[in-house]
Amino acid sequence: MVDFGAVFAGKPVLITGGLGFIGSNLAHRLVELGAVVTIVDALFPDCGGNWFNIAGIEDRVEVHVLDIQDEAALGRLVREKAFLFNLAGRVSHLDSMRNPYADLESNVRGHLSVLEACRRHNPEVKIVHAGTRQVYGRPCYLPVDESHPPNPVDINGVNKLAGELYHIVYHRAYGLRTASLRLTNTYGPRMWVRDSRLTFIGWWIRRVVEGQELEIFGDGRQIRDFNYVDDVVEALLLAAANPVAEGQIYNLGGEPISLLDLARLLVEVNGGGSYRLVPFPPERNRIDIGDFCGDSTRIRDQLGWRPRVSLREGLARTLAYYREYHRYYW
Q: Residue 284 above 90 pLDDT?
């Protein structure tokens, strides 16, 4: 059992994308642990950044609104930081197909800027990068382990893979202390729920809270796995705290469930609701990955990570959050 208080208390930490979903939950946890937290976020429209995400800790964190491509500003901010959680970037698969250059700039050029700032100004900082299972594309086998060949089906997956590999190359070539986590479907409080561009489960949460019908594309048999955001934060902290993680890539994975069964569970936990099957929109069908579930054996064995929040409990917590705070997210 890692004593995170001993690792992070009093330590200067930088979180890129810190006003977004995962970054803000991480910021809350680090503040709780006594870390000195600095947040960087570009607050691009429709990318998930939200000032309300740091409500309750806003006077205990330092926030800089800037693009991670601003290498000069970033160079000043990375100095003397002990840890850097690199969570910035674009995550919408559909948006990447409509505007590939914006996705390229954020997820490739932006991460090169972060790494160059660290190489030049603080090569000792520990860097944890948030990658994605989208790099695998349509799986050849399940569950998907880290040896599975990457085969992205969309531009976001290509750019995310490039950004991740830059982190690994900077470890091998320059000795930077980097690690990357390939996240699966993360859900929980503070996620984007305005539409389904960034996360379909966030949109489902909103629909069920509003008493609207859920739409399931196809036959609903597609398999996905999910991680509650607190468990993802735990994995990020473990990767930062353990030197074994340096130069490594880790999958996160949850319990597999079909989308139809997920809809049924969400309606049950909510205490009511409805759903129906609808045809796949062509633009989504072209980049759908089919069934997916990740094998998290490596991070379990090397870092001791275990998901602790069941899907039922996580959905209950998430629904409760948006019932109370929906006016800040709709």
A: no
> What are the structure tokens assigned to 257, written together?
């469930």
| Helix orientation angle between 200-209 and 259-270, rounded to the nearest 10 degrees | 30
pLDDT band with cut points at 50, 70 and 90 for residue 41: very high
Question: And the tokens for 34?
Answer: 């006594």
- d(CA 258, CA 70) in angstroms, rounded, equals 42
* Contact between residue 193 and residue 205 where contact means Cβ atoms under 8 Å apart: yes
CA–CA gap between residue 320 and residue 55 (Å, rounded): 17
Distance, first Cα to last Cα, the chain: 39
Topology of 4-190+227-254+295-309 in CATH? Rossmann fold (3.40.50)
Q: Which of 303, 186, 187 is nearest to 250 (CA)?
A: 303
Among 251, 286, 259, 292, residue whose Cα is nearest residue 138: 292
Q: Sketch the domain layout of the chain as residue ranges.
A: 4-190+227-254+295-309
Amino acid identity, position 235: A
| pLDDT per position as a tens digit, 190-211 | 999 999 999 999 999 999 999 9
Q: What is the three-class DSSP state of 281?
A: coil
Q: Can you tell me which residue has the tokens 């993802």?
A: 232
The values of phi and psi at residue 247, to 5°, are 80, 5
- pLDDT at residue 286 in the model: 84
